[in-house]
Design a protein that fits this description.
- Strand 3 (about 40-45) and strand 4 form a beta hairpin.
- The protein has helices at about 20-25, 70-85; strands spanning about 5-15, 35-40, 40-45, 45-50, 60-65, 90-95.
- The chain has a four-stranded antiparallel sheet with strand order 2-5-1-6, covered by helices on one side.
- By secondary structure, the protein is α+β, with helices and mostly antiparallel strands.
- GO terms for molecular function: enzyme regulator activity.
- Pfam families: P-II.
- This is Nitrogen regulatory protein P-II.
Length: about 100
C-alpha cells in the first residue's frame, strides 16, 4: 500500500473560541477536522481540570486535521489568526496518509 506525505495539525483552544476557529477553517475550505473536548491538562499556569464544571465555557477543545503539505501553511495562518491573541496551542506533525485526495 502506498502512502503520501501530509501534515497533521492539532489546535487546542479555549472552548468559547471553538466556533470562531471552525468557522475560519470552513471559510478556508479545509476539507475536514475533528473536535474533541479536553478534559484536563497542565501548562504555564499549572494543572487544571473540567471536573466539576457545570458548562464547557471554561474548558478547552482540541481540533485535529490532516492536510496536504502544500496547504499546511495556509491552514496554519488561518488557525493562528484565531489562536494567537488567546490561550491556545498549535502543533504540526509530519504524517503519511493512504488516500491523499481526502485531505486536499
Amino acid at each position: 500500500m502506498q502512502t503520501h506525505p501530509a501534515k497533521r495539525i492539532e489546535i487546542i483552544i479555549e472552548a468559547p473560541l471553538l466556533r470562531r476557529l471552525t468557522d475560519a477553517l470552513d471559510k478556508a475550505d479545509v476539507p475536514g477536522y475533528t473536535v474533541l473536548p479536553v478534559l484536563a491538562g497542565s501548562g504555564k499556569s499549572g494543572p487544571w481540570s473540567r471536573e466539576g464544571q457545570v458548562s464547557s465555557a471554561g474548558g478547552m477543545a482540541s481540533v485535529t486535521l490532516v492536510t496536504t503539505v502544500e496547504r499546511a501553511d495556509q491552514v496554519l495562518e488561518t488557525a493562528f489568526a484565531v489562536v494567537q491573541p488567546h490561550i491556545g496551542i498549535v502543533s504540526v506533525t509530519d504524517c503519511e496518509v493512504i488516500r491523499p485526495a481526502r485531505f486536499a
